[in-house]
Amino acid sequence: MNRPVRPPSRRPVTVLAAAALVCAAAWAGHHASRVAALERQGERGQQQLRLYSQTLASELARYDYLPGLLGLDDRVGALFAPGDDAARVASANLYLAALNERAGTRAIYVLDRQGRVLSTSNWQRTDSYLGEQLGYRPYFRQAIAGNSGHFYGVGTTRGEAGYYLSAPIGNRRNPIGVAVVKVGLEALEVNWQDANSRVLLADENDVVILASNPTWRLSALKPLSAAERARFARTRQYNLAPLRQIEMTTLEVLTGGEALVRLEGSPPLLAQTLAQPGTPWRLTLLSPTAEVARAAQGGALLAGTLAALALSVAVALNSRRRRIAERLAARAALEAANDELERKVIERTADLSAANRQLQAEVAERIRAEANLRKTQDDLLQAGKLAVIGQMSTGIAHELNQPLAALRTLSGNTQKFLARGDLATASANLTTINQLVERMGRITGALKSFARKNGGGHSVAVLGAALETTLFLLEPRLKSLKPELVRELDPSLTVACDANRLEQVLVNLIGNALDAVAGLDAPRVELRAWRDGDTVTLSVRDNGPGLPDDVRARLFEPFFTTKPVGQGLGLGLTLSAGIVGDFGGTLAADNHPDGGACFTLTLPAAKETLTHAR
Ligand code: ADP
């Protein structure tokens, strides 16, 4: 058997597409959340940077005025008076030391035109600047040129980093010396350390001058060229610091000058830079991006889940739609099947109606045929009866001729006796004549009754009476054959059968028995009847030649006879069996073990009381 070819399943493709969709949504969620989180963090970072920048600017501005003021003080001005006076230097030293302490600066000192330290706040220390030649320092050069100097550098004496502010003393165009204030900015770093983020301040050379992590201080953010390193050596800007390079890898450049970087193997950090106003410096904030990664993951999860949810809803809706469509299709198919069924029912009903009409027509035909058959049967029965009568006619004629001859003689004699006046003899003759006429009447009456067409409607017959009539009808033959007639029966037994028909059957059976015993030395016919439950059985046995097998096989066939032409028609047993069958009885023929044929007739015993039985 061919299996139906199913279309290839699209399920794996659908599952792959759904998975791709969920992944795409997760990716989009990841990207959007990351961008948003980076933006938020960027804004926070900018705020923080601005705050740090303002703090730094105000810290730097605090001391801005200080170098310019120094030149106004007499004790400082006195340093430039002609001649060498240790007292003036001592006085200026004391003043500068007091000022340094009050202002909280690292050092305050005054240089002459050649860059030699004339007086300093740290005059008392062994490593005091006093007398040192600092003319090569950029802040001196800037100030001696008439400008305010700003410089971050590492001290050459003590190797201490600091912010140098310088101002010319005297006429700006032709200064007599330079006043310098060195400020330590490390306090800012302490503030920065509190923050979760890392902060660093790089100068114009990309050298870190302040950092939340002090180990980064005086490291380079980029590779330094040989020329740069030579310049640093000349100006001693960073003294002898090795300026190792901080390992910073850019992972991703973002908008607005921001970038994702990895600093010395750290996790990715968001790097934001702000130029410090009024300085060539740049403040850099490095904030961890773990939050961004978490937000991105969350976004991916959320978008993926939402997409999966939306897909599930879509799948559910789709399968619901399909189910509804299937249900509708099933309903439509059911309705179609129903319609088809109704159509078939109508067709079948029409067929059945036609068949029924045909059947009714056939039934009517059968009824007609049966009526015909019945009529034919009746005609046949009648013919059978008439045949019997014909057979009996010789005997009957003889039977009637005898009394007729006697009547003729008696009536002639009676006339003579009357003429003689012998009234007694005449009367006796008349009595005999009466008896003879009565007997003739009985014979013709029996014949008339036998020849009657139907049974008169009685369905109960007295067996004894029917037998009497039969024997009466057969009397001429009985007289001539003189058989021994054995009768063993209760004459009052009644059977459910028409009396006339029963007589016809008995005439046939006994007539056949008489035919069979004709010519025997001791002919005998035995008639027995008995009731067994609801059935009455009558057997007619003779001591004739019995029934040869070939005869027995054809006994009930119409027109089967072994008798010479004119004696037998071969209808007797056929009609008898038909009559008995009509009344619910049976007729069987057999050979008696002691010889002779034995016909057994059964009929239902009569139930109703007999009123008109003959
Ligand atoms: P018919 O008497 O006109 O021949 P039946 O139908 O009455 O027609 O009988 C058919 C045949 O059955 C008879 O011709 C006869 O050969 C056989 N038959 C009937 N009754 C007897 C009997 N009692 N003994 C021997 N043969 C019989």
TrEMBL record:
E.C. numbers: 2.7.13.3
Catalyzed reactions: ATP + protein L-histidine = ADP + protein N-phospho-L-histidine
Listed Gene3D superfamilies: 1.10.287.130, 6.10.250.3020, Histidine kinase-like ATPase, C-terminal domain (3.30.565.10), PAS domain (3.30.450.20)
CDD domains named among the record's database cross-references: HisKA (cd00082)
Compartment(s) of residence: Cell inner membrane
Protein's membrane topology: Multi-pass membrane protein
GO MF terms held by the record: ATP binding; phosphorelay sensor kinase activity
Sequence ranges assigned to domain Histidine kinase in this UniProt record: 395-607
Signal peptide start and end residues: 1-28
Alphabetical list of InterPro entries matching this protein: dCache_1, HATPase_C_sf, HATPase_dom, His_kinase_dom, HisK_dim/P_dom, HisK_dim/P_sf, Sensor-like_sf, Sig_transdc_His_kin-like_C
Gene Ontology cellular component annotations, sorted alphabetically: plasma membrane
Swiss-Prot/TrEMBL keywords: ATP-binding, Cell inner membrane, Cell membrane, Coiled coil, Kinase, Membrane, Nucleotide-binding, Phosphoprotein, Signal, Transferase, Transmembrane, Transmembrane helix, Two-component regulatory system
Residue stretches in coiled coil: 324-379
Protein name per the record: C4-dicarboxylate transport sensor protein DctB
Source organism of this protein record: Crenobacter luteus
